[in-house]
Structure formats: C-alpha cells, structure tokens
Amino acid sequence: xxxPDARILVFAKAPVEGxxxxxxxxxxxxxxAAELHRLMTSHVIQTATASALCPVxxxxxxxxxxxxxxxxxxxxxxxxxxxxxxxxxxxxxxxxSHTLQTARQVLIIGSDCLQFTASHLQQAIEYLTRQxxxxxxxxxxxxxxxLIGMNQTDRRxxxxxxWGTSKVLAQTRKALQQLGWDWHELPCLHDVDxxxxxxxxxAYAPQYPWPPALxxxxxxxxxxx
Length: 225
What we know:
By secondary structure, the protein is an alpha/beta fold. The protein has 8 helices and 7 strands; from the N terminus they run βααβαβαβαββαβαα. The chain has helices at about 25-30, 30-50, 65-75, 90-100, 120-130, 170-180, 195-205, 210-225; strands spanning about 5-15, 55-60, 80, 105-110, 135-140, 145-150, 185. It has a 7-stranded mixed β-sheet, with helices on both faces. Helix 2 packs antiparallel against helix 8 (about 210-225). It is globular.
C-alpha cells in the first residue's frame, strides 16, 4: 500500500427499501432505488479497496450486522464499523477522531458519487501529507461535498452544518476559516440523488468503467426517464 498510515472511510447505509435514494423513489420505485443504492455502494467500496492506497473501513448504518455489510466484508478487504451520533456531523466527527488515534490521514467518502477513481483518492491523500494542508475537500455540484479528508479534526468542522442542503460546502469553508486551517479543494464531482443527477450521468458515463450490473441498471433507468 502506498499510504499505510492513511485510512479511507466509506460511509454507507444498508440498502433497505424505502430508506435509501428516497428522492428517486417517485421515479424509480423503492425496490429499484434500493438496488441502485446497493450497486453504487458496492462499486465505491470496490474502487476504494482496488486502489490499494491504504486500509479501507466501512462505517455502517443502521448496523454492521446487516447482510449487505457482512457480504461486503466477505467480498472486499474491509473492516466494518458502527456509525455513532445524532446527525451526520456527529457521525463523521466520531469516525474521524476515532480513526486518527491510529492513522495519520483520513478520507471520508459516501456512496453517492460514481466518479471516484484511484487517482482521485490518491491526490486527496497526497495533499494531506503536506505540512501546510490539514483538510482536503471534493465539492459536489449541488453545494455539498463528496469527500472530506483530514490529518486532524475538530468538532467545529462538523457543527452548525445544515446537512443535505446546498449550504454544506459554504458552511464548511466558513468553519475552516474560523479554525484557521488551510485546505485544498479538488475538482467538483457529481453525486446521484435526484432525477436530474441521473440524467447527468449520460454525459460522463463513458469515462468510467462501472461494473456490468450497475451499467445495465443505469441504462434501464435512463431509458425510462
């Protein structure tokens, strides 16, 4: 591994019908939305582990005992961990602070972005190895972010953030400024949460080697939108 002292933390929900990709349920139905979430999450885990950059952890919600996570642990070289906290900020702070007790750099990614590559993850870790950068961000097109990396953490980095809105990135930048921390931002990527996001996939799909099952489902979904 190139960065044995780093960790990639994949934040993921179990693919329970009606609980995931909820903004897509009106267009896809709960079963197809859950299947899309399952395939996307598996792809993100596969991308992170296949990069061979560093150990990969999967932080699970609502619990690591769900069969999806158990199967992921059998299929990929990952360790499973329980998300803890009242909101997303609490959960990310807990995961980061816990992991940084034994690691030097941490990347937190979700399962909503299909544009992650090994190169992108490597760039993020490399910025964190520089003495002048404490945080790295990958903005999302909707005003949030799809990746946050850090070599130290502070609860204030995740406090007073209106999660799930277009204000997340701006509020995070403000928190970094108040902390006096230097950070770097990688190029903006798309996540997949809405019908418009699915339509955007057609523009960048040829650049990414997605697994056949995910490709087939996306093609079927796009054909019916």
